[in-house]
Amino acid sequence: MTEHILYSFRRCPYAIRARMALAYSGITMELRELILKDKPAEMLKHSPKGTVPVVITQSGQVIDESLDVMLWALNQNDPNNWLNNLDDSLKLIEANDQHFKPLLDKYKYADRHPECTEEQHRENSLSFIKRLEALLQQNNYLLGDKIRLADVALFPFIRQYAFVNKKWFDQLPHKNLQRWLQHFLNSDLFSQIMPKFKLYNAGFRYHFPINQLIE
Ligand SMILES: N[C@@H](CCC(=O)N[C@@H](CS)C(=O)NCC(=O)O)C(=O)O
User: Fold this and answer.
1) Residue 52 sits in which domain range?
2) Whether the predicted model's global pTM rises above the 0.85 cut
């Protein structure tokens, strides 16, 4: 039987959030790892906009937005109720994707945005970091004492932010955000979805989430 197919790029934060939701919901797929400068023609045929992640379902449906991939997975199986508080999750995800992500990119690639120094770009993104810290002062996770969609959807972006300059991030007074990030970095779920996949364009395909090569 044909499997669902996932086109993915290991380090992409959008692909990370999608793989975490897919692995959590236990949906099995064929994973095809790519690099952004050499996207497989089959993927572009299905999704000409050329971003990852892309899921092609067994029935041929194309899902090429990471949030839609997460919702597709969780609507099939959501054992710990990540979909609770969905409206609040969606608001935070929108703030992350629309507002924080462009600022994060400017900080991460400051040399491509010379209108400000790296420190200024970092400063511009701090209000979102402080907003998350304020939420995490109240509870273990962003929306309460349980993991919700927003936690998993935002984690890969905060990870990226932290690792631009981990020493600087670690000395911030935002202990709750640091604790929250560390929780996800240490989680079995994150380890499970981060092995070094070999490239589909070099002939490799994987059973996901067990990550065994397809012979
Ligand atoms: N809104 C999309 C954004 C996905 C996205 O931008 N992914 C990046 C990689 S992290 C990408 O594929 N960029 C295309 C490129 O750089 O060629 C989603 O949520 O899936």
Assistant:
1) 4-80+193-213
2) yes
